[in-house]
Design a protein that fits this description.
Blueprint: H1 11-22, H2 27-33, E1 39-43, H3 58-79, E2 87-94, E3 101-105, H4 108-115, E4 119-120, E5 124-130, H5 135-139, E6 148-158, E7 163-175
Antiparallel strand pairs: 1-3, 2-3, 2-7, 4-5, 5-6, 6-7
Helix pairs in contact: 1-3
Protein name: DUF3916 domain-containing protein
Organism: Acetobacter garciniae
Amino acid sequence: MTDLGRESFSCDVANRIWDWSTRNDHLQHTVGTRPFKEYVAWKIPLGLPGLDCTYANRAALYFCAERMVSKMMTISRIFHKYNSLNRVYSLMTYPNMLGSEVGICFSDCTWQKLLYRNINTENYIEKTERQERSLHTDFGLSAPDFFSTLSFRHWIEDRDEHISFQGGFHIIWKDI
């Protein structure tokens, strides 16, 4: 067991997250090619089943969240001169960190789609709703003053795949 949390959060995972957060040589190429026209995102390299937001995992969660904010700050410094970019963000999911990402959003329309996911079809329902929830409570992290933060509750019900999910996410962002 590492000093970062439970046994499943190994030194290998910590090293992958560290490498992910400090490697910046690919950033300009990725943003320049814009593989997705509306945003570019880098998923945090956690293995399944992710990292549950529990008190026992507090140090590991803080490490992951801090590395995400660090990567976001680096991206912000590198790309502050580009007028075509809108904002850099870090999306931290709970009850585990699977799907957490750091990215750049290119438009306000994309930003609204990222935050407010309200889909209601016969076989698929997805909904987000703002809530008062503390980033510090879930991840032991306080965002720097020059970043903005919001918290959302998130529900998904996919009847075709028999998936039901209730969780949420914190989003930290800075306009570039």
